[in-house]
From TrEMBL:
Chain ranges of the MGAT4 conserved region domain: 55-314
Name this protein carries in UniProt: Alpha-1,3-mannosyl-glycoprotein 4-beta-N-acetylglucosaminyltransferase C-like
Coiled-coil features, chain-numbered ranges: none
Source taxon at top rank: Eukaryota
Organism for this UniProt entry: Callorhinchus milii (Ghost shark)
Pathway(s) served: Protein modification; protein glycosylation
Length: 464
């Protein structure tokens, strides 16, 4: 590890100054003048895309080998076969409160036996107090022995000797020294956890050690992945809080671990991971509602201060997340700026915004494969722009795809219902008209002066 760290610093030193400025411009202190920020950005971009530094960064992103660390297995053993999902948690001693056992209980009790067969939970006890680690292991093994024996729970520790320096680090954002040490060590804790999990599963889910799970969260994640098949993504988010409920490809974990180590002292882990996502060209946040995970900790792991953060999108007993099967979008509405039609159908926080619609205008979703739809939900308008709703419109489903001058469409449509107060939501379609659908169309039936925002289009389908 010592050799690795020297190599990482050497290979990254030439890139660091320009790359880091580029990565964290949006997170700088507000005291920096906008003119200086713009000049810094231009300089960073020029240096970042120079031939030498571009090659260095490509080498970082192309890393596929794991970091050479000898882990201590405090409980459990390496999995014998690759799982569908690895759930990773890192935990340290808190000054007030401890929620790790409650979190593990939620993971296991909210999963069915079938789901547990495809899952492995890895806990990194990252505290340097080995006595505390031993006490925690004893309590966990007493309560979750059957999960350890079954290979569903592994507890590890990365020895302190593998950690880079944690004292005397740069005080970015005017953080106090103990705060810098805490967040820098946390980055390394997560990097070492991801490094071990790299070969355990197809997908990796990051949780914190003070989390409540929704029922059958793994099945909900499976459904989302089925809906994203064929599309590019780096991170899928199942909670809007911190570093909770973030999903990654297992194959991305080695370079993600290297990335966290290279910039471990620069900023908190959730900020770094947002930059990682952006640098791998996933521009928009892809977050699903309702949230599958809730923050339950009352006291922070840093200084034991109060932390009342809650995810108001969390639903414990609801995992019916929409599929939004792969499709192409067509509309004759005049699009405002870059609020393009695909944003209404995606899982990002953005939306479609079109100029004043006229009677007969349409917004059509053409599926790449025939779909058996069970539910359709369309929401228009925003809280801050309540006039930009669909005042009069109907929702239709179509069959018999055909090629048109504007792209694709269906030649035969059936009306399902009308919009009420800018919304449409109908369930139980799979038992009636929702079978073998090839198109879904929103058709405006009355012109309006106000513009139209289509915030979300959610479609649930039945899989054979």
């Amino acid at each position: 590890m010592r050799c690795y760290w020297k190599r990482a610093v050497t290979s990254g030193s030439l890139l660091f100054l320009c790359l880091f400025v580029y990565l964290c411009l949006r997170d700088e202190e507000p005291k920096i003048l906008e003119k200086d920020r713009r000049l810094a950005r231009e300089l960073a971009m020029q240096q970042l895309y120079s031939e030498r530094n571009g090659q260095s960064f490509r080498e970082l992103l192309n890393l596929s080998s794991t970091i050479n660390i000898t882990y201590q297995y405090l409980a459990g053993f390496p999995v014998l076969r690759k799982k569908f999902l690895a759930v990773g948690l890192s935990s340290v001693r808190r000054k007030r409160g401890n929620y790790l056992q409650e979190t593990l209980k939620s993971i296991f009790t909210q999963s069915t036996n079938e789901e547990l067969l495809d899952m492995v939970v890895v806990v990194h006890l990252a505290d340097f107090d080995l006595g505390w680690n031993t006490q925690v292991v004893l309590k966990i093994t007493q309560k979750f022995a059957h999960h350890i024996i079954s290979g569903r729970l592994i507890i590890i520790h990365a020895p302190e000797q593998y950690y880079p320096p944690l004292k005397g680090l740069k005080r970015n954002y005017n953080d106090e020294d103990d705060r810098v040490t805490f967040r820098s060590k946390q980055n390394v804790d997560y990097a070492f956890l991801m490094n071990l999990c790299a070969n355990l599963s197809d997908y990796y889910l990051m949780l914190e050690d003070d989390v409540q799970c929704s029922h059958s969260f793994l099945s909900a994640i499976r459904k989302v992945l089925a809906s994203k098949e064929g599309s590019y993504w780096v991170t899928l988010e199942f909670s809007k809080l911190g570093y909770i409920g973030k999903l990654y490809h297992g194959s991305d974990l080695p370079r993600l671990a290297h990335f966290l180590l290279m910039f471990y002292q620069e900023m908190p882990c959730d900020w770094l991971l947002n930059h990682f996502r952006g640098l791998l060209t996933q521009k928009d946040v892809i977050r699903f509602k309702p949230s599958l995970f809730q923050h339950i900790g009352y006291y922070s792991s840093f200084r034991g201060t109060e932390n009342r953060l809650k995810d108001d999108d969390f639903e414990e007993d609801f995992f019916d997340i929409p599929d939004n099967p792969p499709a192409h979008i067509y509309t004759n509405l005049k699009v405002f700026e870059n609020y393009n039609p695909t944003k209404a159908y995606s899982n990002s926080e953005e939306y479609f915004w079109g100029k004043s619609p006229s009677a007969g205008d349409y917004f059509t979703i053409v599926f790449t494969k025939t779909v058996n739809i069970s539910r359709i939900q369309v929401v228009t308008g925003l809280v801050e722009r309540q006039n930009d709703v669909l005042n009069a419109g109907i929702l239709e489903i179509g069959k018999h795809q055909t090629v048109t001058l504007s792209g694709q469409d269906c030649s035969h449509y059936v009306q399902l219902g009308e919009f009420q107060k800018g919304r449409y939501d109908q369930k139980g379609l799979d038992t009636a008209a929702g079978n073998e659908v090839q198109c879904v169309r929103i058709r405006i039936t009355k012109s309006q002066n106000d513009w139209l925002i289509i915030r979300t289009i959610n479609i649930w389908s039945k899989h054979s």
